[in-house]
Specification:
The structure is a homodimer of 342-residue chains.
Chain A: H1 2-9, H2 20-27, H3 31-39, H4 46-59, H5 65-72, E1 77-82, H6 91-103, E2 107-112, H7 117-128, E3 134-138, H8 144-153, E4 157-160, E5 170-173, H9 176-190, E6 194-199, H10 203-217, E7 226-228, H11 235-247, E8 253-257, H12 260-272, E9 281-286, E10 300-304, H13 306-321, E11 329-331, E12 334-337
Parallel strand pairs in A: 1-2, 1-3, 3-4, 4-5, 5-11, 6-7, 6-8, 8-9, 9-10
Antiparallel strand pairs in A: 10-12
Chain A binds a DNA duplex (30 and 30 nucleotides) through residues 19-21, 29-33, 35-36, 39, 43-45, 48, 63-73.
Chain lengths: 342, 342
Amino acid sequence: MMTKREKNTQQPPLSGPATLADIARLAGVSPVTVSRAINTPKLVKPRTLEAIERVIAKTGYVPNLLAGGLASRRTRLIAAIVPSVASTIFAETIEGLNAELVSAGYQLLLGLSGYDLNRELELTRAILARRPDGIILTGITHMKETRAMLTGAGLPIVEIWDSTPSPLDTAVGFSHYDVGALVAEYLLAKGHERYAQIGANDPRARQRRDGFVSRLAGITTVEIPAIEMNSPSTFQDGREALGQLLDRGGGSLAVFGSSDVVAHGALTEAIARGCRVPEDVAIVGFGDFDFAPHTYPPLTTVRIDRRMIGTQAARSILRKISGEDVASMVEVDFEIVRRGSA
Amino acid sequence: MMTKREKNTQQPPLSGPATLADIARLAGVSPVTVSRAINTPKLVKPRTLEAIERVIAKTGYVPNLLAGGLASRRTRLIAAIVPSVASTIFAETIEGLNAELVSAGYQLLLGLSGYDLNRELELTRAILARRPDGIILTGITHMKETRAMLTGAGLPIVEIWDSTPSPLDTAVGFSHYDVGALVAEYLLAKGHERYAQIGANDPRARQRRDGFVSRLAGITTVEIPAIEMNSPSTFQDGREALGQLLDRGGGSLAVFGSSDVVAHGALTEAIARGCRVPEDVAIVGFGDFDFAPHTYPPLTTVRIDRRMIGTQAARSILRKISGEDVASMVEVDFEIVRRGSA
DNA sequence: CGCTAAAATGAAAGCGCTTTCATTTCCGGA
DNA sequence: TCCGGAAATGAAAGCGCTTTCATTTTAGCG
């Protein structure tokens, strides 16, 4: 009792926000007990716990996770690097990821690489400096410095949005090559005279192109033009690319766009030129974006559960963190959604 | 020399990642000097600096920002809470924000509130625990606990996407009420027999509705129906809402949708029912999303520079951090983009 | 050359927690 | 009533940096 009173009496004016020690003093216990009350309440006697909680509520104490993380070597932070968040494609992945992380008590540190591997490297460095408990990267293409830094850091890694037999650590995604091949088959079945691919130049878009072209190469004797543009490809890109293809003349045309956005542009150009869709020009997109069912005609496209990629990535990394076994490659489904454009 | 050798000799096997002290030992200087080499290189003699940098490069040392932040009380972290990132509207703001922050050496900690103020409160607590150098919130409506926690934390705050004479600290945005009023005026000039508003129920959407309705109330004698739905409002919501309005019968209809998505739905329903747009049904959206120019007919809408809101928010908060004066309210422009739908 | 101010470096303390490990308190059974 | 083990609490050290403040070096100048 004596001790407690003394302590309360000599209590300084609390410069700055309250600390764990302040709470301990006010509650008449030691700092360790407050720490336990917060992190492992079961280890604290109910009476004590209640007293501490009262003090915390009264003071509005917010624990300092920097200090906590430094001491415990666990930050409850998960970092994710995606190319962009404005281009829709990754936004839902982020949402899924975030939802899953938050419900497990983790927080998301977001990095935007803009499809630039150098920036990815810089981001990785900056992120590792915060000692996240895990990191999520988009794609399987990274600079060797990035790979080195990452593996050297010894934390769980999840690569998303692509499929690979040899991930850095774990991966969640699908084969873009197979997507391209599937679209090729789909269009082949429709029987067109010309085939073409238009789209972005990031590694995954290229894989889709390759899959598409390879599948076709064995069948058609005609050259398969591919028009490439910077990621992310835009509506305007699509219009222009289709214009070019149409200007070359020739028979009925089947086009695989590397995203719904670029496909929508192509579709619009086709309609504007009076082509019949899908008879004269057939178009398949990628992503099944929100607007895809509402274009004219509705866009046939490849659907991926973008949110699920985030969810699965979160689960993989959380399991990794808790030391459980995790499949090194989680395959995510895709399917062609058949609508009016092809 | 003797000292240096000894130190190198007794060097332990470096359990775990290298620390500042390790670098210091290897470079034959004290930890402080390494710290300075990293943070304020000008204070270090070129020769020494070079030696330290060599060691850093060789070891792949990544500073621990938790420790740094704890000691310096600056984390170079900025947190932002937005309702969602998948609904396009805030995604570009995040991109703008992030770009500006990164180039100033800061990192973004993202929180997604899902239009839920309780979640905003929880996020705020979790975020403050990481001691960010500043925090950015969406909107000016917060729970009182959130406000208390925020002001108590004594860090720079920027509220975005709304306008207010009394921000918590600083704000960047525009008056949604004025947007509604402007749209009302725009549609009034076209002369329709009925007016209606359809849209979400978040505070900002409501303000737009209020502005729209109030502006109209003085002019038209007819009741102005408002159909409300949960945020974010969807394409389907728009179709159904317009269907309801059309079912009521009556003369030519002018509708303000609370987002381009819901407006697009309404537009689609109007066309599907064979209405002439914009003669029978006129529709104005909000946001000028990517697809707006490409709907049929193209969507007349309200354009906001969403990215700029992020950029300005970043600037405000960075200035605040460096102690400069900052306007407590930064107004962002909006304008009606006239297309085919109204 | 010697002196002084500026430049460069270092020693020590401490940021606010968590982690052992040790100690005290509690409780049921003999 | 006393004892042993479990439950509850505490003491001390330390996580990896930065911040004073003190000390040493360097350079400029009469």
